[in-house]
# Entry
Amino acid sequence: MASDTDTRNPDRIGALLRRSLAELRALVTSRIFRRIFLLHMLALVWLVAGIFLIAENRRGLVQAKMDSLSAQAGLIANLLVETAVEAAPEPRLDREAAREVLRRLSRIYVPEETRALIYDHEAQLIADSRLIAGAVGVEELPPPGEAGLGEAAGGLVQAMWSGIQNVARDESEREALRRSALDEARLAMQEGRAVRGVRRGPSGELIVSVTLPIQPIQAVVGAVTFESFDLDALIAAERRAILPYIGFAALVTFLSALGLTVYIAWPIRRLADKAREVRLAGGRRVPIPRLANRKDEIGHLGRAFADMTTALYDRLDAIESFAADVSHEIKNPLTSIRSAAEVLPKAPDAERRDKLIRVIQHDVKRLDRLVTDISNASRLDAELARDDLALIDLDRFLRDLIRGYDPERTGARGVRVRVEGEPSPVLVHAHEGPIGRVFLNLVDNAITFSPEGGEVRVRIERAPLGRGTAATRPPVRVSVEDEGPGIPPDNLETIFQRFYTQRPQGSAFGSHSGLGLSICRQIVDAHGGRIWAENRRGRGGGVAGARFVVELPRAGR
# Structure
C-alpha cells in the first residue's frame, strides 16, 4: 500500500506540474497577453529612448566640457603668442618653438583623454600632443572578408539610432558633426574667432573640440585645437547606470502583462470553455461561473452570461413543457373525434348518427379554437419583441376599450361592465394590442362567472407606496372584480397555468382553451408588471366574488 501511494504521488505531482506549465504556456502565448505586453514594451521603449536622448544631448554637460577646453586652449594660445611668434619682418609662428611649448604643457595641462593640435597659418599641422608625448593608439581591426550578418545588423541599428539622435539636434549641431579638425582650424583662422562643437571622429566616436586662432594683434598666424574624447564614455556610464532600472521596468512590465492576462484572459477562457460545453451538452444543463467576486466588466460579463444561459435553459424547458401540454390537449378532442368516427358507421338509427355528428363538429370547433389560441400564444414573444412600446393613458384606454365592448356578450345575461377611477392621465409604457388583450380576457372571465344581472367593475388606482418600484413612483394598479362564486384558495395560482380550465355550471364543455390567463401573465411579465388573483370578501366575511389585479410600472418621473 505504501509503495502504491508513493508511486501515485509523484505521478500526480508531475501531472499537476505539466498542467500548470501548459496553462502558463497558453497564457504567455495568448493574443491578449502579447498585445498587453507589446503595448507596455512600446511605452517602455519610448521612455528609454527619451532617457538616452536626454542623456546624450545634455547641453549643460557639453557646455561645461567646452568651457574647460576653451580655457585650456586659450592658455596654450596665449603662451604661443608670447613665446613662439616672430614679429619681423611679419608675424609668423615658429614651428620648433610651438612644438617645445606644447611638449612642456602637455605633461601638465593635456590629460590622457584630451588632445591638443597646433596649426600654422596655412592650416598645416605642426604639433600634436599625442605624437609629442609618444602615445601609441591600439585599435582592433575587423577580420578580413565581408561583414557578417551580426555586424550588418549592428551597423543598421547604429545608423537608425544616429538618425533618431539627429532629429533632436538643431542645424548648427548637425553641421558641427560633419566637420573635421582641419575644417575647424581653417574656419577659426578665416573668421578670427573661436569654433566650438561636437563632431564625430574617424571611428564614429563623439569628440568635443574647441579651436582658437593664434592672433598676436590682428594677423592670424595659426590655430590651436583642444579636443576631448571622453564624451562617449560619460554617455556610456549614464546608460550603464540606467540599465538596472530598465531591467526592473521590463520585469515589472512582464509581470504586469502576465497579471492582466490572468485577470482578464483566464475568466474569459473559462466562459468560452463553458460555452463550448453548453453547445456540446445536448440540452443538459451546464453550470456557468458567475464570477460573483469580480466587480468589474469581466464580472458583469460572467453574470450576464450565466443569466443568459439560465434564461435559455428555462426557455427550452418551457418549450418542452408547452409542447407536452399542447400534445395532451390536442389529443383529447382527436381521441373523441376518432371514437365518434369509429362508432358512426355502426349507429343503429338517424338520431344516434346526428348525435355523433354533433360531437364531431363540437370537437372540431374545440380543436380549431385550441390551434388558434396556441398559435397566438406562440407568436406572443415575437410580437412583443417586434413592436415598440407606446405611451398610453391607461384610464382613457380602458374606458374606450369597455365602451367599444360587444353588448351581445353581456346583453343576454344582463351583466354590466363599469370603469371606476379618477379621469386623470395615468401613463404607462405598453404595447396597445397585447395589453388590451389582457384586460379583455379578464373582463370576459369576469362576465362568464358573473350571475345574471350582475356587475363587473374595472377599477384604476395607484398601488401603495411600499409596493412600487420607487418610493415616489408607485405602479398603476388595475383590478377587475366580479360577483361570481370566487376561486378556491388552492387554485389562486394554478389558474394561471397553461390549459387550466374551471368553468361555471351550465357552461359548455370545451368552450375555452385554458390559455387566456396564462397569456395574460406572459404579457404582464413582459411589461415588467405582475398579475395575481384573490377573492373579494362581503360584509359577512364570505366570498363575494373574484378579483384579478394587474400592476404596471408608471411612466414618467
